[in-house]
Write a structure and sequence with these properties.
Radius of gyration: 15 Å
Helix content: 40-55%
Number of domains: 1
CATH class: Alpha Beta
Shape: globular
Bound molecules: adenosine-5'-diphosphate
Strand order of the largest sheet: 3-2-1-4-5
Strand content: 15-25%
CATH architecture: 3-Layer(aba) Sandwich
Order of helices and strands: EHEHEHEHEHH
Mean pLDDT: 93
CATH superfamily: HUPs
Length: about 160
């Protein structure tokens, strides 16, 4: 079974993330969306909340599983028996960082490949931080997040 991991902060999940997850689910037997427990950041949603939002919007994909992880991505990939890490590329600016990460990961653990999927044109400028900024000023985020979780996200972000 070919298992892929889609790692990220998903704080919160956007239509850009969901696009990558759904395309990865068509390419691999199983996709594990792994929420990174990153202590340095100041998140708007707890890891549990982010996982719950992800579960809601991926329920139609039988081969997608939601999990969280701490520490090195390669250790997590090894533990899960994954053959690939799937990442979305939005712009050239994503590339340099992602390229460096994949080189390091390859050195640490040669059996996992990093696979890049280009963003879909509609989501090129979309990130969780853009969603947070717009929502905190009362802007309309309905084109940026899945409809099923829109209200939850708005409620949380309105007053921060
Ligand atoms: P963000 O930058 O939105 O906080 P994350 O750290 O949660 O993103 O990213 C998880 C993964 O999703 C990364 O591989 C990232 O490149 C990808 N991703 C995020 N937004 C998009 C998008 N709009 N289009 C394609 N890929 C995306």
């Amino acid at each position: 079974m070919k298992i892929a991991i889609c790692p990220g902060s998903f704080d919160p999940v956007t239509l850009g993330h969901l696009d990558i997850i759904s395309r990865a689910s068509g390419l691999f037997d199983k996709v594990i969306v792994a929420v990174l427990c990153n202590m340095d950041k100041n998140p708007s949603f707890t890891v549990e909340e982010r996982m719950e939002l992800l579960r809601q919007v991926t329920s139609q994909y039988d081969n997608v599983e939601i999990d969280s992880f701490q520490g090195l991505l390669v250790d997590y990939a090894k533990e899960k028996g994954a053959v690939a890490v799937v990442k979305g590329l939005r712009a050239v600016s994503d590339f340099e960082y992602e390229f460096q990460m994949s080189m390091i990961n390859k050195k640490l653990y040669a059996d996992v490949e990093t696979v890049y999927l280009n963003t879909s044109q509609d989501y090129m400028y979309l990130s969780s931080s853009v969603v947070k900024q717009i929502a905190s000023f009362g802007g309309d985020i309905s084109n940026f997040v899945p409809e099923a979780i829109h209200d939850k996200i708005v409620d949380r972000l309105r007053n921060i």
